[in-house]
Design brief:
Oligomer: single chain
Number of strands: 12
Strand order of the largest sheet: 1-2-3-4-5
Largest sheet: 5 strands, mixed
Structural class: alpha+beta
Helix content: 25-40%
Number of helices: 10
Length: 361
């Protein structure tokens, strides 16, 4: 595949050079014909030389264009053939070059469609051969289908961003990517994480889907966070996961475009103005809690690779919907800053500006 890409680039460069040669030849040919038609140039050799030279320069260029067209048509026919004949994205990517975005769309469609149809065999074929050789793979597929809710192929998922990478060594290329999707449908949110290798010249057995996670709001919150707001670590055995939880099983809410474990409070939410005034008068979060005007936070998140903690409090809604306050604290509970959030946006308005650590500690 890498060699084919290099050859195409070489052909394009040659075509560009030959195009210039063709234009020069065309100019010489036309100039020679014009000069030869003039009465004063009859019998002179220079017009004939220009015509012959121009024609000679044009012929290779025409041949190059013809060969390039044949190559492009052949490549397009091969692509269409494999798109029709390949029984999985893993098989397709072994024969056809695609972009990371195209590969992501193809993989998501293939996986959700086969999952909706309950076709475990078609579903499994999309994964890389190296994963399918895992003794645990078939059991993971069975567990995935037991949890899978169905009907997701008809939903429109939003791509939340893609991270990709790869390497090239002497014309041999490897390309991989990971992308996240989410959607909201009839009061339920779904989250998908998709990883895949869409090019590997040296190890084609690694081409295919390498990770697929499907979760709803409660499933995502339970899978990623424990009840104290710490992230769960699953190691390398979470490449195929479906985690669906009902509100009775896990209390969760979408805040700032993210799924979190949720704790109800026995204290009525404050207004934005009252919450801002309370935090302005508080050095530590516990100071605010001790007033009795707010209870324990609805959401607690211990930030990875940091000693800081993020807390979220629900406040009274406005005309646009639910609202929350995200309070960032240091490890000793000192309030660092606070932001107004909505269901989808994490940083709507800064209500407590950044407070640097006091010089006396």
């Amino acid at each position: 595949m890498a060699l084919a890409t290099v050859l195409v680039l070489i052909m394009l460069i040659i075509a560009a050079i030959m195009g210039i040669v063709f234009l020069i030849g065309l100019v010489l040919l036309i100039a020679g014909i014009v000069h030869k038609s003039r009465e004063r140039n009859k019998g002179k050799k220079s017009p004939v030389v220009m015509i012959v030279t121009g024609a000679i320069m044009m012929v290779p260029s025409l041949l190059c264009v013809i060969l390039l067209a044949i190559g492009i048509i052949g490549s397009e026919r091969e692509r269409r053939y494999w798109e029709q004949e390949a029984d999985s994205v893993a098989e397709l990517w072994k024969h056809v070059s695609v972009t990371d975005e195209k590969a992501a769309d193809q993989a998501l469609d293939a996986l959700l469609q086969s999952a909706d149809e309950g076709d475990k065999e078609a579903f499994a074929k999309n994964f890389a051969d190296t994963l399918r050789e895992d003794p645990e793979f078939d059991g993971m597929v069975d567990e995935f289908f037991r949890e899978y809710p169905g009907g997701l192929a008809d939903l429109k998922f939003k791509n939340d961003g893609m991270a990709g990478g790869g390497a090239s060594n002497r014309g041999h290329t490897e390309r991989h990517a990971t992308t996240n999707y989410d959607t909201a449908f009839w009061g339920e949110s779904y989250y998908i994480r998709l990883s895949f290798v869409y090019k590997n010249d040296d190890h084609p057995e690694e081409i295919g889907v390498t990770g697929f996670q499907v979760m709803n709001l409660g499933g995502y919150a339970e899978y990623h966070y424990d009840e104290n707001g710490y992230e769960n670590y699953h190691g390398d055995d979470d490449y195929l996961v479906c985690c669906i939880r009902t509100p009775d099983e896990v209390s969760a809410r979408r805040v700032g475009g993210h799924a979190w474990r949720w704790r109800e409070s026995d204290v009525e939410p404050l207004s934005l103005e009252d919450m801002k005034a309370l935090l302005e008068d508080s050095f530590y979060l516990q100071d605010a809690i001790n007033t009795g005007r707010i209870g324990q936070p609805n959401i607690e998140y211990h930030i990875s690779n940091s000693t800081g903690i993020d807390y979220y409090y629900e406040i009274t809604p406005d005309m646009t919907g639910s609202r929350y306050i995200n309070i960032s604290t240091s490890s000793d509970d000192r309030i660092i800053d606070a932001w107004l959030c909505t269901d989808e946006k994490r940083s709507v308005e800064n209500i407590i500006e950044f407070r640097p650590k006091p010089e006396n500690g």
